[in-house]
Specification:
2 domains; two-stranded parallel ribbon; binds pyridoxal-5'-phosphate; Aspartate Aminotransferase, domain 1; single chain; Aspartate Aminotransferase, domain 2; seven-stranded mixed sheet
Length: 398
C-alpha cells in the first residue's frame, strides 16, 4: 500500500555538486577542481584568516554563555554591517532609515528578503540576470514568485549586453523586483561600469522598480569601498532598496553562515515598521541567528588592529586572483596564440566565463580538470602549481 513518502520522486541534482562528486570520485592525484565557488590560497587550501583566529582567541578568553541573540541578531554586528555596506558617513544611517538583520549567510539574507517581499508584494514579478547565481531563481520561486530573466551576458564580447539589459529594465512592470549583483557577477565575472550603473539606477527609479542588491563578494573586485559604491549610489537615490550581503568569501567563513539583510526605508518611522516585519519572518523560520560567526565578524570589524589585518588579508585574496587572471591570459597567449583570452583580465571577482564550450569542458574532465558545463571556472582555484597544467590542457582542447 502507498505511504505518504512512497510516491515522492528524486529531486533534480544540483549541477555544481555533481561536479564535486565526480571530482571526489576521480582517482588521479593530479586532479584539479575549477568548478568550486570558494577561494583557495596558493597552496590550494581554504584559508583560515589570521584576523578570524585572533578574534576567536578573544572570544574564547571571554568564555561568554551561549544565550539567544535578539531576533535581528547581534546589535554590534548589525551596526558594523551597515557601516561596511553603506559607508560609515551614510545619510541613511544617520537618518536611521536603514534596518539590518543578521542572516544565515547571503542565502539566508536573500530568503528573508524574498519572504518579506512575498508578504507585501505577492503579485510582483522578479527579474534576475541571464545568467545568474544558480540559486537565485529557485530561491525566489520557493518564496512564491514568478521569476524572469533580464538580458545580461553577451557571449560574443564576453561582457555585459548593456543595451539589452537597459531595454529589459525599461520594459518591466512597475513594482517589479529586480535582483542585481552589486559586484563580481557570479557566474560571468562581467560587471557594469560606473556610468552604466548610473543608467540602471535612473531606469529603476523611473520604472518604479524595487532593487534588491546581492553583494556576496565585497572586497573581491576593486576594494571594499569601491565594490560597495553601487549600494551607496542606490541608497542616495532613495528607497525602497534591499541589500543582501555575505561574509562567506570576504572572511573565508563559509560554514559559519554569516550574512545580513539591510533594507532602506523612506523615514525612520517606516524603518521601524519594516524591522518589526523582518523580525516576524526570522522568528517564524528559525527564531534567531547563531552567535559565533556574527561575533567573530563584529569583533574584527570593530577592533582597529583586527580590522586593519582583515583589510590586508582581503586585499591579499583580491590581488592573488588578479595575478592568476594575468598569468592565465599570458600563458594562453604563449600556448594558443590564435585565441584571445584577454577578456579574462577584465573580468572581476572569483569567476570567469571562460568561453569554453560544454564539449571542451568535457574534454578537460578526461584530463581530470573539472569546470562547470557553462565554461565557468573559479579563478581562485588556480595557483602557481596547477596553472601550467590547466593552461596546457586548455590549449589542447581549443
Ligand atoms: N549570492 C551570490 C551571487 C553568491 O555567489 C553566493 C555564494 O556563492 C551567495 C549569494 C550565497 O552566499 P552564502 O554562502 O553566504 O549563503
Amino acid at each position: 500500500s502507498a505511504s505518504l513518502f512512497s510516491a515522492i520522486e528524486m529531486a533534480p541534482r544540483d549541477p555544481i555538486l555533481g561536479i564535486t562528486e565526480a571530482f571526489n570520485a576521480d582517482q588521479n592525484p593530479a586532479k584539479i577542481n575549477l568548478g568550486v565557488g570558494v577561494y583557495y590560497d596558493d597552496n590550494g587550501k581554504v584559508p583560515l584568516l589570521a584576523c578570524v583566529q585572533k578574534a576567536e582567541a578573544i572570544l574564547i578568553e571571554q568564555a561568554a554563555p551561549r544565550t539567544y541573540l535578539p531576533i535581528e541578531g547581534l546589535a554590534a554586528y548589525d551596526k558594523a554591517v551597515q557601516e561596511l555596506v553603506f559607508g560609515a558617513d551614510s545619510a541613511v544611517i544617520q537618518e536611521r532609515r536603514a534596518v539590518t538583520v543578521q542572516a544565515i549567510g547571503g542565502t539566508g539574507a536573500l530568503k528573508i528578503g524574498a519572504d518579506f517581499l512575498q508578504r507585501f508584494a505577492p503579485g510582483a514579478q522578479v527579474y534576475i540576470s541571464d545568467p545568474s547565481w544558480e540559486n537565485h531563481r529557485a530561491l525566489f520561486e520557493s518564496a512564491g514568485f514568478v521569476v524572469n530573466n533580464y538580458a545580461y551576458y553577451d557571449a560574443v564580447t564576453h561582457g555585459v549586453d548593456f543595451a539589452g539589459m537597459l531595454a529589459d529594465l525599461k520594459a518591466m512592470p512597475r513594482g517589479s523586483i529586480v535582483l542585481l549583483h552589486a559586484c563580481c557577477h557570479n557566474p560571468t565575472g562581467a560587471d557594469l561600469s560606473g556610468a552604466q550603473w548610473d543608467e540602471v539606477i535612473a531606469a529603476v527609479g523611473a520604472g518604479g522598480l524595487v532593487p534588491f542588491l546581492d553583494m556576496a563578494y565585497q572586497g573581491f573586485g576593486a576594494g571594499i569601498a569601491e565594490d560597495g559604491a553601487v549600494v551607496r549610489r542606490f541608497a542616495a537615490s532613495g528607497g525602497p532598496l534591499l541589500i543582501s550581503n555575505s561574509f562567506s568569501k570576504s572572511f573565508s567563513l563559509y560554514g559559519e553562515r554569516v550574512g545580513a539583510l539591510s533594507v532602506v526605508a523612506a523615514s525612520a518611522e517606516e524603518a521601524g515598521r519594516l524591522l518589526s516585519q523582518l523580525k516576524r519572518v526570522v522568528r517564524t523560520n528559525y527564531s534567531n541567528p547563531p552567535v559565533h560567526g556574527g561575533k567573530v565578524v563584529a569583533t574584527v570589524l570593530t577592533t582597529p588592529e583586527l580590522r586593519q589585518l582583515w583589510e590586508e588579508e582581503l586585499a591579499g585574496m583580491r590581488v592573488r586572483i588578479k595575478e592568476m587572471r594575468d598569468a592565465f591570459v599570458k600563458k594562453l597567449q604563449e600556448k594558443a596564440p590564435a585565441h584571445d583570452f584577454a577578456f579574462v583580465r577584465d573580468q572581476i571577482g572569483m569567476f570567469s566565463y571562460s568561453g569554453l564550450s560544454k564539449a571542451q569542458v568535457e574534454q578537460l574532465r578526461a584530463e581530470s580538470i573539472y569546470a562547470v558545463d557553462t565554461g565557468r571556472i573559479c579563478v581562485a582555484a588556480l595557483n602557481s602549481r596547477n596553472i601550467d597544467i590547466v593552461i596546457d590542457a586548455i590549449a589542447k582542447v581549443l
